[in-house]
Amino acid sequence: xxxxxxxxxxxxxxxxxxxxxxxxxxxxxxxxxxxxxxxxxxxxxxxxxxxxxxxxxxxxxxxxxxxxxxxxxxxxxxxxxxxxxxxxxxxxxxxxxxxxxxxxxxxxxxxxxxxxxxxxxxxxxxxxxxxxxxxxxxxxxxxxxxxxxxxxxxxxxxxxxxxxxxxxxxxxxxxxxxxxxxxxxxxxxxxxxxxxxxxxxxxxxxxxxxxxxxxxxxxxxxxxxxxxxxxxxxxxxxxxxxxxxxxxxxxxxxxxxxxxxxxxxxxxxxxxxxxxxxxxxxxxxxxxxxxxxxxxxxxxxxxxxxxxxxxxxxxxxxxxxxxxxxxxxxxxxxxxxxxxxxxxxxxxxxxxxxxxxxxxxxxxxxxxxxxxxxxxxxxxxxxxxxxxxxxxxxxxxxxxxxxxxxxxxxxxxxxxxxxxxxxxxxxxxxxxxxxxxxxxxxxxxxxxxxxxxxxxxxxxxxxxxxxxxxxxxxxxxxxxxxxxxxxxxxxxxxxxxxxxxxxxxxxxxxxxxxxxxxxxxxxxxxxxxxxxxxxxxxxxxxxxxxxxxxxxxxxxxxxxxxxxxxxxxxxxxxxxxxxxxxxxxxxxxxxxxxxxxxxxxxxxxxxxxxxxxxxxxxxxxxxxxxxxxxxxxxxxxxxxxxxxxxxxxxxxxxxxxxxxxxxxxxxxxxxxxxxxxxxxxxxxxxxxxxxxxxxxxxxxxxxxxxxxxxxxxxxxxxxxxxxxxxxxxxxxxxxxxxxxxxxxxxxxxxxxxxxxxxxxxxxxxxxxxxxxxxxxxx
Length: 778
What we know:
By secondary structure, the chain is α/β, with parallel strands linked by helices.
């Protein structure tokens, strides 16, 4: 492979990273006891050679023993020992620094675990022992009055049985598996009086739905909300993290679930003051519809789900998506997206979040209470923000039609005048949107599964090129350091699975033809549809049947049509396995659709890595990476070290996986070594009969990216024919080498290039302008 074409750099050429600056790119590593800091350290040379500038680590603070994700924090003052402790983290940081890499830490300010054993969470343990007088009581949102002076602890598998209780050594033990601290002076009381005298009430997990009196993460009672808006709580929960930033161990922070906080803006301003301007900070924030990130937040941007929707959307055919919607509704008898979303929102609010709704209705009083649920259901984005000008007028008008203008006016005034009510209303709204849409409606409404992704809009799955260009121009103008992603630990399907499913929007008739799941025994057409698209998306992979079965079981529980997480239908769930295609049925797409999936896969990777923002590569996704919803997407990563070494030595890529690796490494290295290439943004419009099938843009620093969209439609219409892409002034040369067997390009190009020539062997191209500076201190 010629360096003249590839601009790839060997490991010895890697510069030292400016770890306090905006990353050129990040690479996400999922840490767990089976993949601790020491294992991550072994990947550093490879990841440095790949071209990333920063490693993004999943949460590193002490968590529930054995946790596979780390979001269930138990101790903010210590780095997790199961991962190698603080010594292991600092060792990883030093190794990364030696290879020019910085670290980005994923932090969890919103919640802590309600662990087993409970004493692992010392602040919570002390609150259970000492009640509202505990110095730790300020840590948690506990409504003592609603609980009759006790915290409901819904941790038991069955209702509390006094016969299963024993008392001794200052502890209440229940069933041999749970220990609780005794309130001082109560150890000698008779058991009924002793239980009534505690600051807590152990209860069956089912009581959480209506009786919970502490704020939690979504509907997960094992994660208790933390009041980081309190300066003392912020200081205590962030001391170790701030030390790691000050010591140069961490160069950036990802803020998990910022929508869960009482006042996200105030929190972020306090955090920015603490970490200084040199720390890159992004927030996990879903931007729904036309929602925009608040301009006053002192962050670089989001973690990138808004970019994911844009990239996915331009490879979705709107006409085919509409055809799939018709077929799906005819097949299943289920309603369209808007009705599905509304029904799921009402179900979740009045069911799973009944305790949270009840608390708001009590606070609102009898006159305004009827409007609380209607405003929450009608709200068009995840949450309102304090100081954001009040509640959405459209939501208020919709709620007024159902609950009356006077009741809605009462809610509006409460939000304006009562900061505590406003914060809790906003936090509940965020939890409601996440659970009702992402975790229910996205599983229930399934015409095109690639569109039911975090941050997506299944009712409008396609994005036209003009919309994509407008988004990118705005990102470059307003949030150039924002994160962008295609696959994460939270995506329901990896980008390469979505690329294969999205190809169906160009051939919706395939959902009518024989195929995986089409003749599945049973009477659930919705599940048959989901099973078929999932099988197409996953293809032939190791442990295929097992992985499909796990994903389908999760899908039917989340959809809550025939079974659920709390009310399970065992007989129905036993039938789910029958919808898993036998053998390798559906593993290979028809040839034409496979080519369309390849074009989608490479096109999505190109846009992600060349567009404005800071791209993140999920572990293993630099090559073809097919994964379903967690825990499938948290399987041990495979790093294609040998394949990258062969490509760097000049070998031709073998298959789409290595084509993606070649493209990814080339762009990551350019971003790292020549950062000024990736400044500015200008849409490029092709001319000719197939102009709409080309999506191209220039980064005025000296780079042009060209992708094929809706390639199956393109082929059926006769290909590129005389379509030409005009180029900005200058002489332009391809970054990637010629494909095996292809004629060398007639570069340099000036003025324009025929797309039939440029994209003859690959559906994507990257061009560099001769003499482009593109340098920098990165």
